[in-house]
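Standup notes
- DV: blocked on the single-chain target, sequence here:
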Amino acid sequence: MAIIADDQGRIFTLQTKHSTYQMKADAQNVLLHTYYGEKTDNSDKSLLFCRADRGFSGNPYEMGMRDRTYSLDSLPQEYSSFGTGDYRITSLRVQNKDGSQGAELRYTGYQVQEGKYAIPDLPAVYAANEEAETLVIRLADPYSGLEAELYYGILEEMDVITRAVKITNHGRDDIVLKKAASMNLDWEYGDFQWLSFYGRHSMEMNLQRETIHHGIQAVGSVRGASSHQYNPFVIMCEKGANETMGSCYGFSFVYSGEFLIEAEKDQIDRTRLICGIHPDNFSWILQGGGTLWLPEVIMTYSGKGLGKLSRNFHKVLREHICRGKWKTMRRPILINNWEATYFNFTGEKLIDIAKQAKELGIELFVMDDGWFGNRQDDSSGLGDWFPNEKKLGCTLKELAERITAEGMRFGIWLEPEGISEDSSLYRSHPDWVVGIPGRKPCLSRGQWVLDFSRKDVQDYIIKRISELFDGIPVSYVKWDCNRAICDKFSGMLDGSRQGEFAHRYVLGLYRVLEELTEKFPEILFEGCGGGGGRFDAGMLYYMPQIWGSDTTDAVERLSIQYGASFGYPVSAMGTHVSTAPNHQTGRVVPLSTRGCVAMAGTFGYELDLSGLTLEEKGEIKEQIGRFKKHYDLIQRGDYYRITSPLEGTCTVWEIADPSGKEALVSAVYHHVQANPVPVRVKVQGLKDEAVYQLLLNEDFKETYPDRRLPYGFGPGEVISGAALRQFGFLVPEAVNGFQAWQIYIKECPELGS
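- DV (later): unblocked, structure below
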């Protein structure tokens, strides 16, 4: 049983396979957080609390003069509120009718439900009834009638607990939510570091690891989307935790809009973490009887380091966030024409690219920007989702059918949230643009944003895209969003409700995506936010993969994909092989290395095939054959970070079959040295007692050279899983700049002793 409720002690213990989470309603009906960490028993952990009179930490009135040690300012709480004695960062801040901002949340009851809860109009983890249980705990403010229901979804075998909050106003007067976070977690003790992921356009998911110091640290976004700058995913860990050792806690916000994740170490060295919608541009009027659901947070704990924590997230996102046909079906290897042609193409040029791609084993052609309206560059036409038949030389249907007749699937690029001033849509509906009345708008990339908080805009986009796809063999859609949102204002909201705009925009986007993905279940949707500007668990609920970054440079992608791997699976990361010199950096990287890096993702190509040599075309065929052969291993295997691109000379990662029967180790030299230090790989995820062979590169036909292996290992010889784990093997030295090696390890039971 995942949920153990002690009615007498009012203690609630949540048990997963390897972790325990506990809370308790005390005598004052305050819901205390008592424990989260390594799996333990169901005993009351609050008995271990240390309380003292913390001068200037206020005491609830009912405690008064009799107990000055009892203060909300120092107790670990499950869901904290502003204005009633807790001076730390808090989860909930409200404004009452009289202008006051106090809310006292007290425990009123609980309920255990079979299965995993769902959230209306928002993405969330899903699970079969036998895979999950739900605990609902009710807190209420006795003065205003405000109620907060805390939802906990427990996926025991996954080691995952999810959290969400439902806020209801049971009173008669309006209540304004000024801050409404989805979770609060207090640690009674511990000296923590946190890992967060920062960046910029074309350089996302940079890892930073900082000590949690006294005061407040935060990452977040007020850009209308989760952003390139900070990802809505963080890890809290004990100092010294590494890939295989140490206590680690992970938090993934299942939301694609503005967010704030805060950490505070208080005056007595206790740590609090809060995650939710960013409050800076948020306010929500709850009328009497009104309800607001808040987005979900996925939590997991690992006592065995960062690697295990990441694999927990990979599995739950692959199996319980991603949905639809393409969740498990092999995704086609694609070619995108963007870096081959940019805006300069005709229909015949696209068909020629598709023909060449087919000869190499590529399966899907994707037509990128420039096919619609008066779209000759990025200054016009956005929003006019009508094919430019003069440019294409045919209808969209004819183009798609000619490409599919070549044996290729057909895909298309869209940016439905954007609009150009020079567009028919803007001339017809200038009121649909996000902007503050009477002020000049802020442009970004020469474009504006459609107001997706409006139902009429949502309805138009659903109708227009549906009509566009009607009768056309579209297999893939790249859904882009190429600017952040500012000038936040909606003509459909009155002045008192403008603080609801940013959240309503995301709800509108989710409604559009839900309807289109339900209407076109055969289409593989890929998310994109100018690269990784909206790379989050919320988008994966609608689209099982997201374009990782607008940079296609393989060396830059090492750190981007490394950072993303902490919270997101390989199957979610859109990756392409592009040309050399690279269009973003000018760097020249071998084709074999570009292929190796792109295989740590969904895999595809983005280059001008007509400029390739016969040798390069032959190498692409081999890459495609290799990726197809090992697709299941790469996309669904257990991911291990062996070395980091942020240090040393060689980035190494491994993907192992969960059964231990095979593994693929990839190594890329990002810094070549004369007389280098050997790079040793200790292989993980194999069976100690089994024996294995190592095969190198190409189509894995070449046996690893004996002079490179430990123990004088020669062709045809085998090595035990225990030896590979304890001693490992040496990566061959680089023979040129940015050399890549892929070593396939397979179990050979017939060769065992």
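- Follow-up: The CA atoms of residues 112 and 135 lie 5 Å apart.
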